[in-house]
Amino acid sequence: MNIFNLSVLKLLLVGILWQELYSHPSAQILPNEQGLMQPHAEHTITVKSSSLHSKALPDAPDQYTPQSLVCPIDSPFIRNGSTLSTNETEWLEKRRNFTVDAMIQFFARLDLGSLNASSYIEKNAANASALPVIGIAASGGGYRALMNGGGALQAFDSRTVNSSLPGHLGGILQSATYLTGLSGGSWLVGSMYLNNFTDITSLRDSGNVWMFQNSIFVGPTESDDFDVRTFEYFSQIQDAVTGKYIVGYNTSITDYWGRALAYQLINATEGGISYTWSSISTSTDFQSGAIPMPIIVADGRAPGEVLIPDNTTVFEFNPWELGTSNPPLQAFAPLQFLGSKYSTGKLLTDEECVWGFDNAGFIMGTSSSLFNQAFLKINDTDAPDAIKNSLNRILGSIGEANQDIAVYEPNPFYLYNSQSEYAKSTVLSLVDGGEDLQNIPLEPLLQPQRKLDVIIALDSSADTSTRWPNGTAMVATYQRSLSSLGKDSGITFPSVPDQNTFINLGLNKNPTFFGCNSSNMSDSAPLIIYIPNSPYIYQSNVSTFELEYDTPERDLIIENGYNVATMANATINSDWPTCLVCAILSRSLERTDTAIPEKCTICFQRYCWDGTTNHTDPGDYYPSYKVPQG
Ligand SMILES: *[C@@H]1O[C@H](CO)[C@@H](O)[C@H](O)[C@H]1NC(C)=O
Ligand SMILES: *[C@@H]1O[C@H](CO)[C@@H](O)[C@H](O)[C@H]1NC(C)=O
Ligand SMILES: *[C@@H]1O[C@H](CO)[C@@H](O)[C@H](O)[C@H]1NC(C)=O
Ligand SMILES: *[C@@H]1O[C@H](CO)[C@@H](O)[C@H](O)[C@H]1NC(C)=O
Ligand SMILES: *[C@@H]1O[C@H](CO)[C@@H](O)[C@H](O)[C@H]1NC(C)=O
Ligand SMILES: *[C@@H]1O[C@H](CO)[C@@H](O)[C@H](O)[C@H]1NC(C)=O
Ligand SMILES: *[C@@H]1O[C@H](CO)[C@@H](O)[C@H](O)[C@H]1NC(C)=O
Ligand SMILES: *[C@@H]1O[C@H](CO)[C@@H](O)[C@H](O)[C@H]1NC(C)=O
Ligand SMILES: *[C@@H]1O[C@H](CO)[C@@H](O)[C@H](O)[C@H]1NC(C)=O
Ligand SMILES: *[C@@H]1O[C@H](CO)[C@@H](O)[C@H](O)[C@H]1NC(C)=O
Ligand SMILES: *[C@@H]1O[C@H](CO)[C@@H](O)[C@H](O)[C@H]1NC(C)=O
Ligand SMILES: *[C@@H]1O[C@H](CO)[C@@H](O)[C@H](O)[C@H]1NC(C)=O
């Protein structure tokens, strides 16, 4: 993979930096594994009452160290993943009214000719099955994906200043039911939800998070509120991970990576060390249905596997659960009690419930575990011995081929069923959600029970040798939908062409609709609005493993992302906002037998892939600016 060559140079530079930082003798006093990393004992152990929480909360009982506590009255158990959870079905009912209101407002700004889209929604508001269900998926690709995807979410968010002007798209985020993220996309989704669903502009301008000028090898030295010296930063990380290890949990490099990452993303001391992913489910705005449901994706690595096959089991972290809808495992575990000891789907007798294992940074680190690589190179530097020793201990026990795993032990699915490999081991290994090449987190949105009509797929992948998308993620998901695993999972996906065609037809540089003609498909797959990263005002094809950006560059990539989503505020094509709404409404109009307005027909002629192909090798791909540069 050529991306790594670039990172080697980067890491050499990092090495020099390390030498500078740690040639000082005082570096030796960093606490080591056997030394100073006492769990933080001052926290009182009480069972929390979730009804009082108002936002994603630092609700772990002992920071990064999971703790066994009395179980709530209902003992947690593993459930069959062939249906939605009751938490989700109940939540969906509440979410609906919010999306209805948001669609009415957003659609009112657009002219679809013969159809009044706002009053169409109003008319069908009481009929759940008639209404469109919208998902947004933010791909992986490191900080590039966070920034490019972030620009798109900024454009889709009605809270963004000027986002309801003509040519803008504010309101799509409020109209969506689901928002998924994977790897770098999980950093984006996590940043929003762990900071009280804050908007992208606030994240960008916060002065505490998204400070990408401070690399993870340095820590938040320039944060307005959480400034710590690099040395202290590393001792905090070491203390946290060792605390978890000491009470008996196996740790992996992902624990270190996730801790470091969180300092960039969570607006709280020590990178939000006590924030759990499950605490999102207790936030007021989420519980009331006022904001979309966030889902993060990771891939399973079955025992004994090293490479991730295309038919691997795809896991999701939603606010309530970790699990998969893929057979043969097809099971979900309560997220809040991850780390508890289950067997055959039940909590072992006399076991207490473990709280605080689902640390939010650890979950985002899991989805992006490919970046564990970066941490391993610390060995080649003058980094503190404590960190090096810990990483080497982990490597010694798991082997180099498993550098990228996140260890979930005890495995909640142990002996849950007899068919799945994942149920045979006491360890569940998860890896970066993009390792199966499905770099856009579509899988949770293709679950038939979720009944999505349309998915906005934000693709920030670095597929071509010049690091632009070429449709590889779409091809991977399409092929998976045709495999026996895809069929057994009930997944349907519109057909997409090969990568050469994506480039030759420009499908990888203009927004493209796939699955426009649903009668072509045996089942009702959602329509996919594919929005690839493309240079509008900035060459945003920065390297996946570039982990440091100065503020002007960060802001330009976010602004480019805004332009990618809006087609430069509809200056490339003034019909773009209308066409997006046509795509959003398409499946619903079919269901309610409503005539497609002429305007939409024109849109579909322009934006739908027409089924043609051109398999010629396109050669090197160097797209030019879409907005002429002066
Ligand atoms: C889950 O439910 C499905 C559908 O009822 C069933 O076919 C499957 O065997 C169940 N899985 C387990 C592990 O019980
Ligand atoms: C999920 O639903 C179950 C059953 O209705 C309920 O006991 C539990 O509290 C819910 N979980 C959360 C986090 O709301
Ligand atoms: C949604 O709005 C309808 C009126 O349009 C109302 O009858 C219903 O109770 C609302 N549902 C929820 C869950 O608030
Ligand atoms: C669409 O219908 C709404 C009422 O539902 C009305 O306020 C609005 O003016 C209509 N828009 C157009 C363009 O006719
Ligand atoms: C609700 O919409 C569906 C189409 O999805 C339609 O078949 C059904 O008749 C509608 N129900 C009512 C009560 O209008
Ligand atoms: C979270 O955001 C909501 C809605 O914007 C706001 O009402 C609430 O006060 C915020 N909560 C905290 C703790 O900041
Ligand atoms: C970060 O937290 C501070 C308070 O500690 C708050 O004032 C600020 O709005 C937060 N920023 C974001 C982006 O959430
Ligand atoms: C790091 O160095 C130690 C001792 O010098 C060695 O045992 C270990 O294999 C090295 N690890 C990596 C990842 O290179
Ligand atoms: C498309 O991307 C894949 C994945 O990076 C790569 O192997 C392939 O060579 C690319 N093809 C073209 C034509 O860019
Ligand atoms: C994945 O494919 C391999 C090879 O074709 C097959 O042996 C394995 O059973 C498949 N796994 C699943 C979960 O379908
Ligand atoms: C589109 O609008 C955004 C936000 O208002 C702005 O940052 C961007 O520069 C505009 N795009 C162009 C091409 O003018
Ligand atoms: C197919 O793509 C190649 C490479 O981009 C191009 O030169 C050729 O003109 C295309 N063929 C057709 C029929 O469009």
UniProtKB/TrEMBL annotation:
It comes from the Eukaryota. Residues 1-23 form the signal peptide. SMART domains: PLAc (SM00022). One of its GO terms (biological process) is glycerophospholipid catabolic process. InterPro entries: Acyl_Trfase/lysoPLipase, LysoPLipase_cat_dom. Keywords: Glycoprotein, Hydrolase, Lipid degradation, Lipid metabolism, Signal. It is an enzyme of class 3 (hydrolase). Residues 70-614 form the PLA2c domain. Catalyzes the release of fatty acids from lysophospholipids. Belongs to the lysophospholipase family. This is Lysophospholipase. It comes from Penicillium malachiteum.
